[in-house]
Amino acid sequence: MGLDIRWPIGMMFSLIGVLLLIEGAIGGDKELSLGININLIWGIVLLVFGVLMLLGAMRGRKTPPAA
Amino acid sequence: MQPIHLAWVDYTILIAYVAFVLGIGWVLARYMKTSSDFLTSARSIPTWVTGLAFMAANLGALELVGMAASGAKYGIAQVHFYWIGAIPAMVFLAVFMMPFYYGSKARSVPEYLKMRFNEPVRALNALSFAVMTVFASGISMDALARLLTNLLPWKLHTNILGMDFGSYDIYLWICSGVVLLYVLKGGLTSAIYTEVLQFFMIVLGFAPVVYLGLRDAGGWHSVKNSLQGVATNPSAFYLQPAGIHYAPDAWTSAWKPVLAGPTANPLGVDWFAVVFGLGFVLSFGYWCVNFLVVQRAMAAKNMTAARNTPLIAAVPKMLFPILVILPGMVAIALASMPSKDYRIPPPIVSQADYTKAVEVVKNANPADAAAVKAVGNALGEKVDTTKVTQLIAANAANKLSDVQIQEGLYNSIAENDYNSVILSLLKKYCPPGLLGLALTALLASFMSGMAGNVTAFNTIWTYDLYQAYLVRNKSDAHYFWMGKCITVVGIVLSIFCAYVSKQYNNAMDIIQLVFGFVNAPIFATMLLGMFWKRATGIGAFIGLFGGIAGSTVFHAFTTTVSNVDADGHVINHMKGGYLGVVSKFPSEMAQNFWLAIFAFTICFLATVFISLATRRTKTDEQLKGLVYSLTPKTVDHNLPIWQRPPVIGTVLMIACVILNIIFW
């Protein structure tokens, strides 16, 4: 209905992914998460997810919407 | 639970989420032109969105918190709420009932009941549902405000118009305000979109935590082994009173302990109650009839989309136990491993009480038997005698610091606050960043709970109460305006209910009770209405009324074994038995399941007998499209086989059976 939900989802998770990435890269706090830099890894995963959503939304805009 | 320390990145994520939901509302506002757009999304939402929203509408934070709590307390048996208590009902709704809901063009469940039966049935269902949604919404917001008050380190205070407001009030009003804004702007579509956003946040926010917890515990096999120790001696971890022991697989086998009888499983239920009370009556009564979820399926684009919506929802629903129940099981497994330095958080004790108790420990004589009792009194909680004695002795030997003594006291409280389990895991494993995501996910689901209930409420009010009985035949613009007004009223009423819920610690139990009273009988009404053309309006009304009345009578005369003291008096009247005790159940869950079976049976039998004794008021022609035998079968031949609802439904049921077998 007017707004393809993939836009806000894509933008939101790309943003969170970037935030976690930055935090993981500069902070590198591994004490809590069993020595794994979970922020860095998960930040990348979220960014990829967000970008895939945005690509889906852009593709949706190209195909003329069904009435 | 001590406040969690949040960093800038966590606050950024939180603010970003709020900005996004408000933004979604604003963008959608320009598409809200009619009452239909606002209240029912005018049947325009893509199938995958309605599917995820269908599941997410039900996924309140109370479920996230509650399922982890139950996973710790009861183990894997909790999956019955998913694999028996949801999937079959969702498949049934999709394949058999959606054609009537969607095909009848009813805008709500009560409207369908009016078309099928008559106005009194509609009114009864609409009124009871409206009251339930407002309460459910209020309870959700109360839980959220409490969570934020305990979690965030600020002590807020303000004074408006001579009235004092503290942290709780400010959080409650701000969160309610955010929900009000995006629902007012974008209506049901806003609520649906944010529910889908919430779904992804929960999955992506909690998955890493579950992974870390499982890894820390040594993997699934290590968890299973530890849970055997937990099951054979649950009192060591304060799960059950002393002297109760279960078979080693009680926490890891879903069916064997249930089949062995109520005393063999921590839930205290028998298989009949699980299959028919939970699996049939409560489950179908919720998923097939509760307008909160059905509304999302009704918003789909076309009949096939509407039928596939619950099926799409069933896939994540089947896998959700991994995300919500498993953390609870991992938590109790960790608590049983001495090297992990973890315990299920105890109930919250004020710092003042801790300080008092620390003093008692410092002044205590290790040889004094009454010292332990004094410590317990100072804390106001039951304490583990052995641990306190050890603590006093350790302090007598080498003067421990106040902080060390307080930590020792924390570990010796012999009660568990299961609702804190998920938070304690977040605190244990999440660095800043991931923490912000997980907490925002939790926050998102509370707010979604309010939004979902309010959007269901405003539709029921506007179409089934206002338009049906109060003000008829006005323009659509009038009803659109009313829809907006009642949204505001709904939020205000929810806030009021939140304050009521604040007074009681067991508000969730009360709402479950009310759900049981109302949901169980309505399913019988719906079943007979859709599949038996002979069911009459009078029969349906008396049956429904009788079912609700029957539930209250059942509740007034039964209670649980633990709720009766040595003299036979009932301890807590909220748990039943206040008019006398005819029957005692092994647990509250057992009582709820049997209450549901009872209410369903009363409603079913009453509807059948009264229908047979009264004349039909509607002809076959009028009932076309509303009853199974009078509706042309939905044709699926033009769809590829993997898109046909009966086929997908069958595959899902097979998958469900396989899951039950794997965790037998």
Describe the 3D structure.
Chain A is an all-alpha fold and 67 residues long. Chain A is built from two helices and no strands. In chain A, helix 1 runs antiparallel to helix 2. The radius of gyration of chain A is 16 Å and the shape is elongated. Chain A starts with 5 loop residues before the first helix and ends in a 5-residue tail after the last helix. Chain B has 664 residues and is an all-alpha fold. Among the domains of chain B are: 8-254 and 305-336 and 424-503, Sodium/glucose cotransporter (Up-down Bundle); 346-415, no CATH class. Chain B has 27 helices and four strands. Chain B has helices spanning 8-29, 35-40, 47-58, 61-74, 80-83, 87-103, 109-116, 119-151, 167-216, 220-232, 256-259, 271-287, 291-298, 303-319, 321-324, 326-335, 351-363, 371-379, 385-397, 402-412, 421-429, 434-470, 476-503, 507-531, 537-557, 588-613, 645-662; strands at 157-160, 163-166, 558-560, 583-585. In chain B, helix 3 runs antiparallel to helix 13, helix 3 (47-58) packs across helix 14 (303-319) and helix 8 (119-151) crosses helix 9. The longest helix of chain B is centred in the first third of the chain and has 50 residues, at 167-216. The mean pLDDT of chain B is 87. The chains are: A mainly alpha (67), B mainly alpha (664). Chain A binds chain B through residues 1-3, 5, 8-9, 11-13, 15-16, 19-20, 22-24, 27, 29-34, 36, 38-39, 42-43, 45-46, 49, and chain B through 7, 9, 12-13, 16-17, 20, 23-24, 27-28, 30-31, 37, 41-42, 44-46, 49, 189, 193, 196-197, 200, 204, 208, 212, 215-216, 428-434, 436-437.
